[in-house]
Structure formats: C-alpha cells, structure tokens
Amino acid sequence: MQQFDVIIIGGGASGLMCAAVAGYRGRSVLVIEHTRKLGRKILMSGGGRCNFTNIHNSAANFLSGNPHFSKSALSRYPAAQFIELVERHGVEFHEKTLGQLFCNESSKEILQLLLTECEWAGVQLVTDTRVESVEALEKGFHLSTSGGELQCESLVIATGGLSIPNGGATGFAYDIARQFGLSVGDVRAALVPFTLQPYDLEYLKPLSGISHDVSVSCNGTTFREAMLFTHRGLSGPAMLQISSYWNPGDTIQIDLFPNLDLFEWLKQQRNDHPKSELLTQMSHLMSKRMAQALCEHWQFSGHMADLSNKRLEEIAQQLHHWTIKPGGTEGYRTAEVTLGGIDTDGVSSKTMEAKTQPGLYFIGECLDVTGHLGGHNFQWAWASGVAAGQVV
Ligand SMILES: Cc1cc2nc3c(=O)[nH]c(=O)nc-3n(C[C@H](O)[C@H](O)[C@H](O)COP(=O)(O)OP(=O)(O)OC[C@H]3O[C@@H](n4cnc5c(N)ncnc54)[C@H](O)[C@@H]3O)c2cc1C
C-alpha cells in the first residue's frame, strides 16, 4: 500500500498546476492519468500554439450557475501570474487579438513548463493507470487502481469535462461528485461549431472556408468576431462563443455588417454607380462567392438605379438581421469545453474543497465554471489548481 499526502486524478492543465504548487509546499504528491499522455488538451490547444491565458481575464468571462464563484481563485492567481511563470521558463509568446496570449512556437512549451515545475516540486506522475474505486476513510481516502492500492490525505479530482472523448475525456469527476453527495447540473458541449438544417446547408455549404466578421446574438448575449462557413455549418470564434449561450431549438441572429449602416451605404452606391449591378456592389463588402450565394438565395438582384429605397431597406434589414436556426452542434467530438458540471454551491470558492467531504477537492473544467473562448478556460484551470494546491 502506497501512501501520499495528495493524490490528484487527471494529468491535464489544472491537475499538473495543482500538483506543482502542492509539491513545492513539501507535500508528497502523486498524479494519476488514465491515458498514456499527460496534458493532451494543452497540446491540442490554440491550433498547436496554446492560447494559455487572456490579459483581460475576469469572472465576467465565465458562465456559471454562480457568477461569483470564480472570483476568489481568479483574483488570487490572475493572468499576470501565469504570464510571469511563462516568462521565467523562457517561453516566447505574443498577443494575437483581444488579449489572447499564444506561444510563438508550440503548445509543447506550456506542457513542458508544467512538467518541469512538477519535477522541481518532486511530484510523481503515473500514466496509463485506471482508478477503479475511491473510498473515504476516517481521515483521507483509499483508492483501488490498476497500479495497486493507494492511500492519501487529500484527493483532488482534475479529470476535466466530456469534450474530445477519443482524447481521454470521461465523466469520472461527475461520478465522484455524486458519490460524495454533490449535485451535478446538466452538461452540454460548448465552444463548438453549429451544424445547419438541410435547407440552410444547401445554399451555405458551397461557402465552406470563407470567413467574415460578424456580430452574432443569442439569448441576450452578443459577440463580435469572425464567422467561418464549414461544410457542416457555421464555425469560427463568433459561432464558438455564442454556442455557449445557445440551446437546442433557439435561433441565432447574425449581423453581417456590424460596422456599417448598410441602407445608407447602398443609397450612396446607387447615387455614385447607378448602372452597376447590386451583386457587384455587394462584392465590395464580402467575398464574391458569398455575395453570389446570398444574393441568389434571397433573390437580391437588379441595377442599383432600379432599386427603390424600400427595396434597399429590405436588403439591409435582411443582412443586418439574418436569423438562422441551427440544426444542432458538432457535439463533444469537437467541442472545446463542457458547459455546466459540478454545482459550485457544494464547493468552497477559496479552496475548491467539497463541502460534503473534507479532503476532497474538484478543480478545472469539471466544475460549473465555463470560460469564453480566448484563454479563459486555461486561466480557470491554473487559478483553481493553484487555489487547491495551496491547501491540500
Ligand atoms: C481542441 C481544444 C482546444 C482548446 N484550446 C484552448 C485554448 O487555446 N485556450 C484555453 O484556454 N482553453 C482551450 N481549450 C480548453 C482547455 O483545454 C480546457 O478547458 C482545460 O484543459 C481544462 O483543464 P482540466 O485540467 O480541467 O482538464 P484537462 O486538461 O482536460 O485534463 C483532464 C485530464 O484528466 C484525464 N482523465 C479523464 N478521466 C480520467 C480518469 N477517469 N482517470 C484518470 N485521468 C482521467 C484526461 O485524460 C486529462 O488528461 C481547448 C480544448 C480543446 C478540446
């Protein structure tokens, strides 16, 4: 029987961070990962360059049943502290857009940073090891694993959410939460591309690969970022962001020209180029392929001079207020995160300890704290990992 002060289940972003912090405090720490690879999502992230934090990060960037829950951990471990760690390890980075920080070279550098920290802190890491059962003892926990029987004083669950199931995601955290009397709210795929209904897909599929800046709204929330047409539907940052606010059956509203008063612009073009085709004018505002498909679909045509104010207003209205009812989303297969999860009412916002079971901690994405796109989810993983690492 091996005994540790702290066992952390899940060798991803939050688990490795928590392990290093606890190890530096002199605690004996074991991290158990069930796949062969630690930090797989870190490697996949940010298109291979890991968007590791966001300089504008705050609790306002998260969805949660309790919008105040993340405040304590985020304020004690803000983005600036992770940036300082990244700089100390000599990892070069840049701001891409909207405060999003990416590695110049590779996501591997962020994983290596965490593994180096764990090594310096004396953390033991095991991979390819399954946890078969967890039992509470009078003090601490007993774990039966594929690698043998283990005991620990503090047990940290850092197994993340359900997205990318073929990368090792499991519902383990939710099962343990339920086992120890915590409630788990509904979960669903978020930061995920939309699929379209056959009717919309038919005319939009040929636009696959085109990106266009939009503002998109759903259920009272709006994002202004790029939209990408795909062969299945709509993706790009704008669509991933709004997917977190979308429920099946909802419509989304897209403004294709959030920077422009299209009606005024069209009147001006009619004045300046009366003989030109509407399609020619629309091609100045978006790719020709996109202008062609949309004009054909909505039957927008004619010479500018022949288009009345009423018609121009109708066209502008359609393009500023395009309403689409997605068929669904691509689901956990491609989602960046799981929305919802363990009800934070049952967890201390200061330490991440379960209120129902002393010594049991939940960190990272398994909790009902879901960040916007742009480095916020990693910042939550770091901050919640540190919060628990300081007390376990
Ligand atoms: C493709 C993709 C790109 C992303 N890009 C970004 C980005 O650029 N910026 C950003 O902020 N966020 C990004 N995210 C989200 C981010 O990766 C997660 O929010 C973050 O990794 C969550 O950290 P975590 O520690 O809670 O879980 P994870 O990092 O997912 O770690 C959980 C670990 O637990 C292991 N595990 C699961 N079940 C068990 C079990 N039963 N026993 C033992 N181990 C188990 C898993 O294999 C995994 O290693 C991206 C996600 C994806 C899928």
UniProtKB/TrEMBL annotation:
<keyword id="KW-0285">Flavoprotein</keyword>
<dbReference type="InterPro" id="IPR055178">
    <property type="entry name" value="RsdA/BaiN/AoA(So)-like_dom"/>
</dbReference>
<dbReference type="Pfam" id="PF22780">
    <property type="entry name" value="HI0933_like_1st"/>
</dbReference>
<dbReference type="Pfam" id="PF03486">
    <property type="entry name" value="HI0933_like"/>
</dbReference>
<dbReference type="InterPro" id="IPR023166">
    <property type="entry name" value="BaiN-like_dom_sf"/>
</dbReference>
<feature type="domain" description="RsdA/BaiN/AoA(So)-like Rossmann fold-like">
    <location>
        <begin position="5"/>
        <end position="390"/>
    </location>
</feature>
<dbReference type="InterPro" id="IPR036188">
    <property type="entry name" value="FAD/NAD-bd_sf"/>
</dbReference>
<feature type="domain" description="RsdA/BaiN/AoA(So)-like insert">
    <location>
        <begin position="188"/>
        <end position="337"/>
    </location>
</feature>
<dbReference type="InterPro" id="IPR004792">
    <property type="entry name" value="BaiN-like"/>
</dbReference>
<dbReference type="InterPro" id="IPR057661">
    <property type="entry name" value="RsdA/BaiN/AoA(So)_Rossmann"/>
</dbReference>
<protein>
    <recommendedName>
        <fullName>Flavoprotein</fullName>
    </recommendedName>
</protein>
<keyword id="KW-0274">FAD</keyword>
